Amino acid sequence: MIRAAASHRMAWTAIATLLIALAGAAIPGRALSQAGTPAAIPPIAVPVPNFWDPRSRPERPRLPGQRVIRFLTDDDYPPLHFNGPDGVPTGFAVELARAACEVLDVVCTVQSRRFDTLLDALSEGRGDAVAAAVPINGDLRSRFSVTAPYHKTPARFLGRRDGEPPALTAAGLAGKRIAVLGGTAHEAFLAAYFPGATLEPRMSFAALTAAVRSGEADLAFADGLALSLWLAGPDTQNCCRFVGGPYLDPRFFGEGVGFVLRPEDDALRRSLDYALHVLAERGVYAQLYLRFFPVSFY
User: Fold this and answer.
1) How far apart are CA 123 and CA 35, in angstroms?
2) What is the DSSP string of 48-68?
3) Average pLDDT of 32-39?
4) Would the pTM count as exceeding 0.85?
5) How confident is the model at residue 13 (pLDDT cuts 50, 70, 90)?
6) Once rounded to an integer, what is the mean pLDDT over residues 113-139?
7) Residue 19: is its pLDDT beyond 90?
8) Out of 87, 102, 202, 295, which could bridge 232 as a Cys pair, Cβ 3.0 to 4.6 Å?
9) Are the C-beta atoms of residues 220 and 108 closer than 8 Å to each other?
């Protein structure tokens, strides 16, 4: 899902400087009023996803004997996890892990390892949880425990600012030229739900965005996170914008990303699920989201 798309990595690398600059900002923790209770978070105009039921009030699980949570990550996947200007791991997943430790009142350590070694290191007890873009799927669930997802990457349409976008229906996109990365789940999704559209496969993310910017294609359809970071960068020349809303069909775009743990560490998994819910309720999740994703992809 997320990790496999090399073209998306190129788009993220192109604005890594922006993300490192953001990493230098203060890390938001629990917002407290003078009375020591969670302070009110101002309303947020930018769409922020919410993966937790606001009506739910989960009880805090007991975490017997747990004084340190050792998170494993890697340093090469901005904006979810990468090294900051001081060489210390940061990113959305990493700072969310640190904030969860604050909620649970435990010490948190974060160690970077090569991505393809993370799950083996977890199995061997070299860490307690993985905070990295490991996609949730059946194979992962068969070997590990995983929290509820804290991140999902939707697909989005991209169009030019100077034109009226077509209706995003099968009839509305009939005959429209849509740039898409060839051989991807995005191409398969379009073929399944918009069979009358004229799909124009591109071999790179740069070629896909250039097709819309130049008018060679009416729209592009791609990973919403990669598109949001491209929209926040200088290459757009203010040409383009998101059209319509997010597409989250798990059959095509996966179940998302959560903290991964060993199956026997159920108390820790439940505690991290509790912490994520609290972070969403207090507005800390939204603060971190807006810090690392300057253009929302929802």
Assistant:
1) 43
2) ----S-TT--PPPPP-TT--E
3) 35
4) no
5) very low
6) 97
7) no
8) 295
9) no
Q: Please choose, from the candidates 81, 260, 228, the residue with its C-alpha nearest in 3D space to the C-alpha of residue 154.
A: 228
By the 8 A CB rule, do 152 and 257 touch?
yes
Per-residue pLDDT, 10: 44
Instruction: List the beta strands (DSSP E) in 177-271.
Output: 177-181, 198-202, 219-223, 240-247, 260-261
Q: Please enumerate in sequence order all residues whose Cβ is within 8 A of that of 34, keeping only pairs 6 or more positions apart, or say none.
A: none
Rounded to whole angstroms, the Cα distance separating 31 from 38 reads 6
Task: Please give the tally of structural domains in the chain.
Answer: 2
C-alpha distances (whole Å) from 79 to each of 64, 76, 151, 168, 233 are 33, 9, 12, 29, 14
For 152-182, letters b (16+ CB in 10 Å) and e give bbbbbbbbbeeeebbebeeeebeebbbbbbe
pLDDT category at 43 given cuts 50, 70, 90 is very low
- Return d(Cα 172, Cα 127) in angstroms, integer: 50
Residue 152 is predicted with a pLDDT of 96
Q: Are residue 126 and residue 272 in the same domain, yes or no?
A: yes
Same structural domain, 281 and 242: no
Of 229, 225, 274, nearest to 247 by C-alpha is: 225
Query: Residue 126 has what DSSP assignment?
Result: S
Measured CA distances, 15 to 1, 126, 161, 163, 231 (Å): 21, 32, 22, 27, 10
Domain range enclosing 212: 155-253
36 and 94 both lie in a single domain: yes
